[in-house]
Write a structure and sequence with these properties.
single chain, alpha/beta, six-stranded mixed sheet, 10 strands, disordered C terminus
């Protein structure tokens, strides 16, 4: 059935004043879909992700997964990866990944699943390494493995590559696609990188701030072998940029 976000709003009380961060958010996300959410600072995109994760509750409206309301964190079905890897510095790669596991498994079964996910994110040989011995990209691979360890149906990514260099970022984007093709989960990515949003997303949701609303949704009708330098990719980039910065289109020769 997928994920349904209906008429969701979130209001915070600051110094006895109400601040509306999200207003009338409506999204229908199909199973196995990749949704990219882009918007400037303060548009509420990370707040929306926390609501979907059950880490916060909406002031109004509702969020449902398979027609069941999300009212609290559900690591069995919903995993989350943040911009910072948030690893325990005193624990090995194995232990950091195992920490996220909620399934009641035997010691041997846990070890086998951890091993499987270490292989999945390409960290074989680093099982006993501590976070201080890892690069930034490797730390994020550990974070991705930890987010996947329960085999969730829905994986939320809150600007997971924002702090990485361009080469590492593109490499991990490709890894996420490879894992998605194997695991068949639904992905929701929050990012400020328009190229990343187009490269990964089946649809790109553009949000505007104060309060955060869904301004436009673009369907990305490109094959999964996407070329960031192609004219078609550039056409999508221009469309999203025009919407994001409220520019009037001058060249309307778009193929989308």
């Amino acid at each position: 059935m997928g994920l349904s976000v209906k008429n969701v709003k979130r209001v915070f009380s600051i110094n006895q004043n109400d601040l509306e961060v999200l207003k009338d958010i409506n999204l229908e996300i199909r199973d196995g879909e990749i949704i990219s959410i882009v918007g400037g600072s303060g548009c509420g995109k990370s707040t929306l992700l926390k609501l979907i994760a059950g880490l916060d509750r909406p002031t109004g409206g509702e969020i449902r997964l398979d027609d069941k309301p999300i009212v609290k964190p559900d690591p069995q079905n919903i995993g989350m990866i943040f911009q910072e890897a948030r690893l325990f510095p005193w624990s090995t790669v194995e232990k950091n990944i195992e920490f996220g596991m909620t399934d009641k498994l035997s010691k041997e079964e846990k070890a086998e699943r951890v091993k499987e996910h270490i292989e999945l994110v390409g960290l074989t040989g680093f099982e006993k390494a501590l976070p201080a011995q890892l690069s930034g990209g490797m730390k994020q691979r550990v974070s991705i493995a930890r987010g996947l360890i329960n085999r969730p149906r829905l994986l939320l990514l809150d600007e997971p590559f924002g702090a990485l260099d361009a080469f590492t970022k593109m490499n991990l984007q490709q890894e996420v696609l490879r894992i998605w093709e194997r695991e068949h989960m639904t992905l929701i990515l929050v990012t400020h990188d328009i190229d990343e949003a187009i490269y990964l997303g089946d649809r790109v949701v553009v949000m505007s701030p104060k309060p955060g609303v869904v301004k436009k949704i673009f369907s990305v009708e490109l094959s999964r072998e996407r070329d960031r330098t192609s004219a078609d990719f550039a056409a999508y980039r221009r469309k999203v940029f025009d919407e994001f910065f409220e520019r009037k289109e001058v060249d309307t020769d778009y193929s989308i």
